[in-house]
Amino acid sequence: MTSMSALRGWVTATGLVLSLIVTGLAAAQEQPRAPARALGSGAVGMPGEYKVGPDDVLDIAVWSTPTLSRVVPVRPDGKISLPLLNDVPVAGLTPMQLKDVLAKKFAEFVPTPEVSVIVREVRSFNISVVGEIRNPGRYELRGFNYSKVIAADGEHENFVLQPGDIVVVP
Which of the two residues, 12 and 153, has the higher pLDDT score? Predict the structure, then answer.
């Protein structure tokens, strides 16, 4: 009788596991997705053109009037300050879009202005690290090479996992 109840328990457990697997596979099937839309500045890993964001540093050159040229930081409110134009909203624009906007605005003061926009420093890719960690705070996110991370440049460090640690393998 015990072997029969053990067999029945095993069959029930196996059936439960199989039903969970089938449910998981059905849920994991590829669902049709809407095309990815471009996010504002700071969208790391998203395809598309770079968009200016707060804390970036821009080199604005007005070739016909060098006195109007400036290297300017993008303020936290997403604007820059330029001579004659005062505050100009720039966050979310590509450098080419910003070039066109500035050329139109400078055209009120300078005949046929030739404007160029160069992104000198990208500082708008920031992340916030919170929780029970040694150094919480806001950090600038910089690009890196997964191959170098995996290879660890020849360095290997063993570390002890603690309960609750999460290991992410790309």
Answer: 12
pLDDT at residue number 139: 77
Residue at token pair 């053990």: 6
60, β-bridge pairs: 70, 117
What pLDDT shows up at residue 168?
75
> Are 138 and 87 spatial neighbours (Cβ–Cβ below 8 Å)?
no
Q: Is the whole-model pTM more than 0.85?
A: no
First-to-last C-alpha distance (Å) of the chain: 50
Closest C-alpha to 84, from 119, 116, 113: 113
- CA distances 150 to 48, 157, 165, 167, Å, are 27, 12, 19, 13
- Sorted by where each starts, the structural domains of the chain and their CATH numbers stand as 47-149 (3.30.1950.10)
